[in-house]
Structure formats: C-alpha cells, structure tokens
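Cast an eye over this sequence plus tokens and walk me through the fold:

***
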Amino acid sequence: MSFTGKYELQSQENFEPFMKALGVPDDQIQKGKDIKSISEIVQDGKKFKITVTTGTKVLCNEFTIGEECEIEMLTGEKAKALVQMEGNNKLIANVKGLKSVTELHGDTITNVMTLGDLTYKRVSKRI
C-alpha cells in the first residue's frame, strides 16, 4: 500500500495541551488550531518525503525506513529519529521521547502522537 498522496486534516484531538507540552509558543498554537493543514507524502520504496503545510508554516522531512535520520519537530528543533514500518500501512517513529504512529486505511491517514501521558490524534483524508 502506497502512502503517496495529498491529505487534508479533517479532525484533531488534544491539539492545544499537546502543543503546550512540546513547548510550542501560545501565539503559534492559537494560529494553528483552526487551520486545516495539508500533508503531502511521496513514497519511493523505503524512502519517504513528507511535507506538511499549515497556513504559511511548511515542515518538510525526508527519511528512509530503518535508517537513522534528522527530523524537524513541530517546535522547529531538529532531532535524530528512526522510522520503522509495520506491515505495509503503519509508520512508527520515536523522536526525543515522542512516539508517532501513522496508519493508512484506504484514503484516511490517522496519526497518533504520544508524549508521556498526553496523546494527540489527527485524522486526514486524501484529496
């Protein structure tokens, strides 16, 4: 199953408390909470390029499954990460105590990020 495509955010849960816990400034949280971000994923075998556009903010990360890489986090900080694939539709990344699980089902991508006991869930649909 290929992740390649463009996806628009449909819903999210726990955005504000999660972003605060990450250290995102309040003004950025307020600006970003109601914007429907667009995620563009390009998959070429084990190589991925993910670009997330939220208003004027663009976050772009590239990685290869099973190889250590540098990821730009939501705060703008760069950190080492390792992304694994489970089956053919689930990506799992661990970055600085944050666990991210991205799962593709048909035209829907669900991303669940966990930091300590806080969970942030995003659901996006292919456009």
